Structure to design on (998 residues):
């Protein structure tokens, strides 16, 4: 038996039906069509499926779709403001912080969540805040630089 | 006349020789003549050979011209990641 | 503005700049579509049943119960893959690996597959399939597998490459040998000779995107395959053969790819998805779980290497010899061959001999992983160089410089080198501030060199000029990490138009001729060569059109800066009464001068230049726990010509990070039962952000004479030195020689304790 879930996804009221044991990751991808949320492991180890749920950073593969009832979800699809990219998105592009890009949505969400709490992180703080996200292509160097640069720009704004 | 060196794996099929001398203008001609002379080499040539001409490795371009007195080395085909 | 290369004296306008990539926006907004992001109408869910045993013969498979389950639309086993008429042994191995026929060769080997209306039903159906196994003795360790009494994987495996062919079967599939000179004589001449055995664990490419595809085959044999792959043309060719389809009728579209590093050069589930689809006559989507990726898609080889090297007290290496044993999984490969070829390639050696043994074991089929086989061999060789230098009281860098291969050196794998970059990377390393920076307590510094061949192969590209003068370059080699940006730069350079007026697209298999995979660092090298030729064809055509418009001879038309000029002196000819024509001008009148403007090339891009790198790293070791920390890391590598330096740096950094993971942590761990115990990212731990420092890079540009812009491949060499560089750094910090990768804390601790015990 499916359950009907209503939540706010990237600011919009969305209703979807999912199985009671279906992960929020699967529900977002297969029911809502938000394929910007990626699956790298399904076990909470890679962070590719990162979203925020009522402002808290979570792995959507570790949350049930049904748990999203009445809650607010943010995914990479909701990051830019109309056609203006979020500074993190912009800086990821400028610094070439992505190669294949499969990890990018997760990194962007995790980095945004960090900068909301700490707008002036050190390199080490960035590294620890992003330690739940795996990237196999970049060696993280350019990702860390992009996040630090975005933080700087956001402080100025 | 070109000296054509064979990597270890090919030598048994060429009667143990480390190299053979062959006159050829292109890689294709070289491989054809080599197979004529050492028929046992033919299947190896078909499936698993790369040709180094003066240090540059060719895996497919059998029309490549062979400069006079070039050093030719037959190698296994290389796979990459 | 990019700088000149010695090769062409050419001042580059676009090549060498760092613009944003054209596919970037889609990737930071979640719009880019990867393997699992595609769906077809009415698609079924595919799922695979895998052997829980490391080695077992398959007595019978009963699918009758599963077939009766509501919602199950197709089940396939090895019976559904016809091998009659297929003679290519590699293809037969691929088929057997995709679906085990007589034996399950490893924990995770596919034995049956189901397509059902949803995931739940598919899973339930798998449970209803009854497989009767006869469990056989297994062997997963490379050194155990070569023992005469070891369990045999294949009783028809008679070692190739030995004369005469042995009459007794063994797990050694092939022996290959390289070298020159007389090593016995060389060792005689040495003042110091060291012999050691090195071992490396089996690592996985670890791409974050699991394999995924959507397959659709109709009853008329027309099909489509959407797939994350490093080479959709190769996949088409192989899948068509396996399924008995016409290549022309199978359209393969490469999705965006979430990392591959060699692992996506190989078919794992795609033929199964196609077979299920054909049987069900519905599209089938098949996505591997992370656990399946580890258990059943190809990791690298586990290795064991015996090595012996001799040196005079002045630092001349007089002889070097190695036997390299590489696992290839259950099927023969050429992994040890590559190890044997690359091992001593950095050095100028009078006497050298390497022997490679391909060893069959009950592990997943080995597949290419970035500069396949070279890192393990380099671990052994570069560790030895350090130790030898230490023994004769010479600095390791000086000994490397003294023995480095140069133009004219006979390489250890045979051919004589042309111009190469090992010397310059070493000189740069010696001058690098990292080399002389002070070290903290418990810290050690190590360095190592690495070599990779690079290659080119078949490429086919189209260039089309729009009516507004913008250009589309269509290529058939997929973009793993910025190739579209690089190709757009090359086309902008060649045509003389701005970068943002060029769009690079990856075509599906119906739109272009055959293209090889993006592997062997060939993507940018080969596609750019073909793209340049396409551009030159279009330019020739545009010059002709300008001549027609001006009613002059084509020889009087000069092409410069994206414009046709009348008169031989081109740009500077102010007397010309024909104002120059831009590409946009020519495009505007194309309908009156012969129709659309286009260029095309189909080439074999042979002549990729060999590539060398030198890495330096500092490691801190906690002597109590064996815990390590990478303090500083520097990569110096020859790129030939860096088309987009930022992405070249990215390749250097990414490869180094993978090598660091392999050196310190990553390893397949098998239990007594032959089952993989760490098939997940929690236990197979790849480096995370907090494990690494910034990775400094220095790009050298020693042009490749075989490419019009001097480009070499850059993708692979960066993974070669790290194992040894870190091994040397840890050895330097602990004063104990590390011989076993990964250097996990317990292993480092054990080595420290063993050394202390032997000192007592
Ligand atoms: S898919 Fe959720 S953490 Fe990997
Ligand atoms: S860019 Fe490929 S995994 Fe991060």
């Amino acid at each position: 038996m499916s359950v009907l879930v209503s939540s706010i996804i990237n600011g919009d009221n969305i209703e979807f039906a999912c199985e009671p044991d279906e992960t929020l990751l699967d529900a977002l991808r297969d029911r809502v069509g938000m394929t910007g949320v990626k699956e790298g492991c399904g076990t909470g180890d890679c962070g590719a499926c990162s979203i925020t749920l009522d402002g808290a950073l979570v792995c959507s593969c570790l949350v049930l779709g049904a748990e999203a009832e009445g809650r607010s979800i943010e995914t990479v699809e909701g990051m830019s403001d109309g056609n203006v990219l979020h500074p993190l998105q912009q800086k990821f592009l400028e610094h070439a912080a992505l190669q294949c890009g499969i990890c990018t949505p997760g990194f962007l969400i995790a980095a945004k969540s960090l900068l909301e709490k700490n707008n002036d992180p050190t390199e080490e703080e960035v590294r620890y805040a992003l330690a739940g996200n795996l990237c196999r292509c970049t060696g993280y160097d350019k990702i860390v630089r992009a996040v630090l640069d975005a933080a700087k720009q956001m402080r100025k704004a | 006349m070109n000296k054509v060196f064979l990597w270890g794996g090919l030598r048994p099929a060429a009667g143990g020789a480390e190299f053979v001398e062959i006159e050829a203008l292109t890689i294709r001609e070289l491989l054809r003549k080599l197979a004529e002379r050492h028929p046992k080499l033919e299947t190896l040539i078909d499936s698993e050979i790369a040709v180094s001409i003066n240090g540059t490795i060719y895996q497919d371009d059998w029309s490549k011209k062979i400069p006079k007195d070039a050093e030719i080395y037959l190698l296994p085909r290389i796979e990459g990641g | 503005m990019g700088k000149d290369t010695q090769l062409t004296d050419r001042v580059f306008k676009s090549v060498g700049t760092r613009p944003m990539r054209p596919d970037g926006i889609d990737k930071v907004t979640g719009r880019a579509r990867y393997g699992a992001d595609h769906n077809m109408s009415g698609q079924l869910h595919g799922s695979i049943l895998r052997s829980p045993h490391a080695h077992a013969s398959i007595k019978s498979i009963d699918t009758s119960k599963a077939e009766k389950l509501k919602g199950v639309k197709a089940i396939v086993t090895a019976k559904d893959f016809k091998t009659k008429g297929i003679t290519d042994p590699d293809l037969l191995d691929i088929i057997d690996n995709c679906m085990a026929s007589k034996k399950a060769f490893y924990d995770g080997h596919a034995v049956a597959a189901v397509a059902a209306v949803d995931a739940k039903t598919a899973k339930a159906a798998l449970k209803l399939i009854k497989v009767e196994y006869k469990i056989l003795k297994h062997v997963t360790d490379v050194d155990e597998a070569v023992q005469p009494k070891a369990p045999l994987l294949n009783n028809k495996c008679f070692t190739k490459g030995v004369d005469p062919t042995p009459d007794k079967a063994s797990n050694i599939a092939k022996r290959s040998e390289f070298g020159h000179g007389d090593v016995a004589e060389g060792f005689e001449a040495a003042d110091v000779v060291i012999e050691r055995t090195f071992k490396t664990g089996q690592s996985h490419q670890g791409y974050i995107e699991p394999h995924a595809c959507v397959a659709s085959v109709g009853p008329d044999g027309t099909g489509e395959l959407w797939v994350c792959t490093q080479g959709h043309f190769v996949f088409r060719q192989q899948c068509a053969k396996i399924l008995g389809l016409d290549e022309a009728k199978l359209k393969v579209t490469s999705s965006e790819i979430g990392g591959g590093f060699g692992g996506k050069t190989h078919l794992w589930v795609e033929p199964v998805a196609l077979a299920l689809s054909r049987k069900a006559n519905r599209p089938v989507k098949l996505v591997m779980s992370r656990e399946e990726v580890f258990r059943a898609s190809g990791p690298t080889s586990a290795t064991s290497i015996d090595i012996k090297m001799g040196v005079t007290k002045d630092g001349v290496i007089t002889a070097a010899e190695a036997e390299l044993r590489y696992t290839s999984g259950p099927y023969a490969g050429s992994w040890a061959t590559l190890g044997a070829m690359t091992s001593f390639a950095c050095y100028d050696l009078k006497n050298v001999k390497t022997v490679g043994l391909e060893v069959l074991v009950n592990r997943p089929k080995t597949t290419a992983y970035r500069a396949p086989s070279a890192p393990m061999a380099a671990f052994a060789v570069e560790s030895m160089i350090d130790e030898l230098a230490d023994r004769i009281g010479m600095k390791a860098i000086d000994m490397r410089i003294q023995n480095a291969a140069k133009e004219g050196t006979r390489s250890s794998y045979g051919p004589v080198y042309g111009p190469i970059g090992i010397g310059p990377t070493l000189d740069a390393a010696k001058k690098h501030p990292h080399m002389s920076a002070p070290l903290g307590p418990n810290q050690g510094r190590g360095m190592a060199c690495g070599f990779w061949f690079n290659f080119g192969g078949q490429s086919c590209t189209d260039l089309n000029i729009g009516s507004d003068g913008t250009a589309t370059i269509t290529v058939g080699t997929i973009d793993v990490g910025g190739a579209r940006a690089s190709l757009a730069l090359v086309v902008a350079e060649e045509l003389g138009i701005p970068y943002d007026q060029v769009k690079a697209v990856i075509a599906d298999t119906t739109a272009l001729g055959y293209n090889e995979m993006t592997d062997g660092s060939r993507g940018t090298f080969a596609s750019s060569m073909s793209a340049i030729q396409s551009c030159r064809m279009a330019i020739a055509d545009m010059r002709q059109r300008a001549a027609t418009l001006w009613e002059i001879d084509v020889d009087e038309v000069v092409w410069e800066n994206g414009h046709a000029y009348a008169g031989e002196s081109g740009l500077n000819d102010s007397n010309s009464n024909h104002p120059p024509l831009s590409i946009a001008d020519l495009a505007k009148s194309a309908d009156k001068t012969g129709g659309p403007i286009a260029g095309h090339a189909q080439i074999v891009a042979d002549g990729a230049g060999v590539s060398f790198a030198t890495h330096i790293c500092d490691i801190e070791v906690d002597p109590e726990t064996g815990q390590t920390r990478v303090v500083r890391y520097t990569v110096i590598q020859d790129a030939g010509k860096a088309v987009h330096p930022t992405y070249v740096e990215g390749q250097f950094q990414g490869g180094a990070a993978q090598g660091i993971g392999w050196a310190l942590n990553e390893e397949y761990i098998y239990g007594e039962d032959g089952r993989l115990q760490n098939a997940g990212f929690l236990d197979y731990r790849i480096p995370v952000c907090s494990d690494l420092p910034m990775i400094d890079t220095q790009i050298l540009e020693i042009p490749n004479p075989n490419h019009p812009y001097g480009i070499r491949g850059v993708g692979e060499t960066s993974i070669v030195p790290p194992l040894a560089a870190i091994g040397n750094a840890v050895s330097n910090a602990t004063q104990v020689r590390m011989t076993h990768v990964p250097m996990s804390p317990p292993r480092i601790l054990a080595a420290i304790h063993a050394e202390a015990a032997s000192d007592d």
